[in-house]
Amino acid sequence: MIPFLLQTLTFATPVLLAALGAVFAERAGVVNIGLEGLLLVGALVAVLVSAATGQPYLGVLAAVVAAVAMAGIFAVFAIGLKRDQVIVGTTINFLALGATGVFYRALKISGEVRTLPVLFGDGSTAINAITLLGLFLIPVGQWLLYRTRLGVMVRSAGEKPEAVAAAGVFVNRLRTLTILVSGALCGMGGASLSIGIANTFTEEMTGGRGFIALAVIVFGRWNPLGVLSAALLFAAADVWQTRLQAQGTLHIPYPIFLALPYVLTLLALAIRGAKVKPPAHLGEPFEQG
Q: Please, which residues have CB within 8 angstroms of residue 212's CB and are 6 or more apart in sequence?
């Protein structure tokens, strides 16, 4: 049971970090479906820098910077130019998918990819610093969102942006800040996937985790603690299907195993998602007078 729990925590980390950052952005009224692309950029940059410098934590830092830069592009178009947020997010996904593929083939990773040091456990149950940081950020995020003035402003920006503007707060600046924070956490999540779990980079290695993170947000009711439970649910299903494949006792085509976590997530979303309401002004641009 303990190895299963440790592996679940490890597998949950990329989705957890991406979803946690997006909670703040969506609470502020911004929907960014480009999480998949941000995770992918973070994953590639972490591997490249780790291999080039031999410093995995430097790879994590570089992944954060790269993902924040990509999130900044999203902010320019979605917030600054007030373009449709879904279209911009989709473009970010395609841009990241194409760019990471091109750079991965062109640069050809040289040197040994240095992975994140293991704090305890080993193999697939190894726990590293990013996983512990992700768990630590959940209560921090909960406190920020519900116990601080900043959290009140973030939540109000998604529910009643006019009231926030009337209080003298620049709504679009606040929304941009949440987008950049989301980018930073996605970069960290991508690094945890490539140099924390897979120990390498492959094209499209995120495997839809950015989209799962969007579902996790809804399932978790735009709440950090809820996001944690939903991310663990997805990760547990992922670990389960991996172990079932390894055992080989069930003679079922492997694509069915691979689809299992996504099917369970969709079922959970269908059951619980219908009962929750998103922030009132989610995805709507705001013009501050």
A: 15, 234, 261, 262, 265
